[in-house]
Amino acid sequence: MYENNSIDFNAKLGFICDMDGVIYHGNKLLPGVVEFVDWLRTQQKQFLFLTNSSERTPKELQQKLERLGLDVGECHFYTSALATASFLKAQAPGCSVYAIGEAGLLNALYDAGITMNDVNPDYVVIGEGKGYSLETLTHAVNLVIRGAKLVGANYDLTGPIENGITPACRALIAPIELATGKQAYFCGKPNPLMMRTGLKRLGCHSADAVIVGDRMDTDIVAGIESGIDTVLVLSGVSTRETVKTYAYRPTLITKGVGDIVKIANGEGEVKAE
After folding, report:
1. Given this model, what pLDDT does residue 140 score?
2. What CATH code is carried by the domain that includes residue 122?
3. Would you say the C-alpha torsion 106, 108, 110, 113 has a positive or negative sign?
4. Residue 269, pLDDT score
5. 197 with 83: CB under 8 angstroms?
6. Closest Cα to residue 126, out of 37, 73, 216, 188?
7. Which member of 20, 122, 156, 229 is catalytic?
8. What is the model's pLDDT at position 75?
9. Is residue 221 part of a domain?
10. Into how many domains does the chain fold?
11. Residue 156 annotated to the active site
12. For residue 186, what pLDDT is reported?
């Protein structure tokens, strides 16, 4: 059903890769990842791990991969937290926010010159994290009612974990939207702003890049709307059955990132199972 000759990986210059469900599940490295990263390096491809997760800083993501056996420089990571901070800095330099999230989000906001304010902030910013509770949710609702603008770090509804799924930013922000009647603006994928930043960091044009992800509703639509060839891997959230429910389709579907290396090396036909 899905042909393996729709992308010439050897001709591509840059690779944008999601992390959760593509590189790892929780604290488990997925099959074929080591071979894929080795191939990127030996072929001198530019690559960037572009994750919608807002919890960890690039340094923490680098250290996590190191613990899992992958040595990847900190410069190869860009997160929805950084995209959110960049957006707010461009929109309202020196603004203040009430933020619910972890170190990745908070550090990115601080580094962008944005201050924390739980009394009368310009924005309420929501990411994922253990600080989310009925108390913080209630406070966020009332701040938005009083005029703070609502921003979400990413558009993911769920995220993959080792034993199932976990609610992600869009699920966590939904109660605030319902209670206030306000719609959030999401900064992560599939927002084209994040994709353009990724291409700029890679130093290549959209026609010379590939995006690899496990989600039709963020990774694949982000690539399609940015004019980038897309690879859906079936090692995360989306399945062959869920693909059929969307009006668009990826350029290629594979079981995992290891298949990209096999296709590039001409090791026979690779099809999604």
Report:
1. 98
2. 3.40.50.1000
3. negative
4. 55
5. yes
6. 188
7. 20
8. 94
9. yes
10. 2
11. no
12. 97
- pTM of structure: 0.88
In the chain, which residues have pLDDT < 70?
1-5, 160, 162, 268-273
Q: Are residues 248 and 170 in the same domain?
A: no
Distance CA(267)–CA(195), nearest Å, equals 31
Write down which residue in 186, 211, 235 finishes a domain: 186
Active-site entry in 8, 18, 111, 219: 18
Residue 75 lies in a domain: no
- Mention every residue, 6+ apart, whose C-beta is less than 8 A from residue 232: 213, 214, 216, 219, 220, 238, 243, 250, 252, 253, 254
Q: Is the distance from CB of 67 to CB of 211 less than 8 angstroms?
A: no
134-145 vs 169-180: helix axis angle to the nearest 10? 50
Last residue of one domain, picked from the residues 130, 151, 186: 186
For the question of residue 38 being annotated catalytic, the response is: no
Q: Tell me what pLDDT residue 150 has.
A: 98
Domain that holds residue 139: 82-186
